[in-house]
Amino acid sequence: MLARLTPLALLVLSPLANASECGDVTIADMNWNSATLMAHVDQFILQNGYDCNAELVPGDTMPTGVSMTEKGEPDIAPEFWSNSHKEMLQKGVDAGKLRFAGKAFAEGGEEGFWVPKYMVEKHPELATIEGVKANAKLFPHPEDDSKSAFMTCPSGWTCQITAGHLFDALNLEASGFELVDPGSGAALAGSIARAYDREKSWFGYYWSPTPVLGRYNMVKVDFGVDADPAHYESCITQEDCTNPKVTAYPPSAVNTITTESFAQKSPAAYEYIANRAYANADMSAMMAWMEENQADGEIAALEFFESYPQVWTQWVPADVADKVKKAL
User: Fold this and answer.
1) Whole-model pTM over 0.70
2) What is the mean pLDDT of the chain?
3) Neighbouring C-beta atoms of residue 50, cutoff 10 Å
4) Are residues 114 and 231 in the same domain?
5) How many other C-beta atoms lie within 10 A of the C-beta of residue 72?
6) Chain center to CA of 50
7) Are residues 24 and 89 in the same domain?
8) Which residues of 300-325 are buried (b: 16+ CB within 10 A; e: fewer)?
9) Is residue 108 over pLDDT 70?
């Protein structure tokens, strides 16, 4: 799709001198695929739709949050996983320096236990945890086929703690399952890829949005209960929890954070930031595309505009959408 774009079209992402309606805006360009894609999309829309002089600045979660709170810059952090930094961010909000503008991901960060869709198509009961437990033999352990395998998070990751506690709460060991540590995040992703390429069985923990779930069609297993955020926080996330109960994973808060000064100075631009949120499936697909094409955030933004007009045109008024389309 990008072959149709001329070099001139690519230049539109560079800052414009005239930004009389909105003024100068700085956007944190963080160093992972989803965040840099968001930053470039925001820059393009603010630049061309709202006449902002939008500039990208390097960012990372903690230093960006501290800088926004203490120095009032950058103006926008498009993707901020806020659960781990609640206290710092709330202090900024309480001091009138920050705003939680909206959700970066419409469904929040999504965690769960997953099985391949082709397995569910053959055995629909595998969409539920009770169906998985009743059919444990469909998931043979790679080293001992008398047991069944559950792929967990690598050692040292927080999700190893949460997945382990839910493994216990769901009583999966009694059904014959054993925790399998993949050793690394790359190995965990690779285990899904190998299973999918050969249409083999797979059951384990993963999260979204990610390139893996954009590339491979997986079904999140229904635990049969709603999320209990209080128990999840007080027990499931704690290594020393001794009495874990079954709970669905609560969505992880992934917010767009802005400075209060940006929200006050540029209300129309702020409204766009507050309105836009990416569906996890769309972002996973874009992240997979970025990996497959070795694309940076700038090129990925152009791909997003071209492939998802039905999404981004809903984030802005019609006249702004028209301006962005002309810029493209």
Assistant:
1) yes
2) 92
3) 22
4) yes
5) 16
6) 26
7) yes
8) bbbbbbeebeeebbebbeeebbebbe
9) yes
